[in-house]
């Protein structure tokens, strides 16, 4: 028997209402007093419902005004069930100014072509694999793509070594299963199944951490665009608009390598590290500014010199050579990614706000840098000390930073 799922029946299943319920486990009816937001529920996004109070709003909520402005002025053709045309999705990610003067802030700072290829892939029948070293915005880009294309970035499976097949396919509400036997009502759809039924974008994070046999569940979904439910003699066929974005870390390669059969189902886009120090400073200050505002921290302009310094230290240690190319350096074991620079600066701003005079200074970032650089206490400490004495100490205008680092390193 071949049955296409009525999206309504999937939606009305009680156990798909919690965005955090990614494992497909049954959620109890009547969620107590904890407010639960239904993904895709537009009503729930209004004022005063808790969404605006969220510590980290979803991209589609945080940038709702930009998305609405883009949708209103976007007269290019949209693929089936896309909220925006591919051009508008790329503009949402890369930023720009609309004809009516609305400014779209850049979300991703990097080569335009990469974003264009990623967006175009999602308009075809191939899925998108975002690959890159840690902290290159794979998760960030995936969330924003889903928000711009489907208006919902919450159809997410978090990949871990323990991700079961049910997280990608479907599970059962055991109370209903026992009471009524296998039926549509007892079935708990996974985020991927919901995306297929509703023609939305599904996301799988850290694909290569998922055990190989579970990963292979995706092969039928991506090549046949169907998800069989043998227990019911039914299947869920993906409707137009469905696609999938997976992210994977370069460094995890070899943990659970993608089978070549699965890899063929994806177009791979590699996200690079920021090409220049200026680009990286730009990324860090934008993001820190956003995070800082939500935490009521001091404004970034006061801290731009420290941001530049953190980025310089990270880039030099990562690259194994000083900016002027004169001194070779040993690289520490940590990744020293842009994401880590962002958190070092955010922590520094919090220190400055709560225990300093509100201006980000060398002393506020030194401990954070040390923590990011020295991951392996034995080997990395030697690398750091060499860098401190050979580079930081000698550099003009870095005396305050040298002192602050010596203080925390000792
Ligand atoms: N090129 C970039 N443009 C904009 N933001 C960036 C860029 N690179 C990094 N970031 C920022 O870095 C942060 C971390 O990115 P994210 O978590 O998406 O990295 P990731 O590649 O998924 O890392 P991991 O492999 O550890 O999962 C985000 O807040 C993002 O804003
Ligand atoms: Mg990630």
UniProtKB/TrEMBL annotation:
Compositional bias, Low complexity, is annotated for 1-23
What are the recorded GO MF terms, alphabetically? ATP binding; ATP hydrolysis activity
Q: Where is this region: Disordered?
A: 1-54
Superkingdom of the source?
A: Bacteria
One matching Pfam family? AAA_5
Sequence ranges assigned to domain ATPase dynein-related AAA in this UniProt record: 128-266
Question: Which named protein is this?
Answer: ATPase
Organism placement in taxonomy: Bacteria, Bacillati, Actinomycetota, Actinomycetes, Kitasatosporales
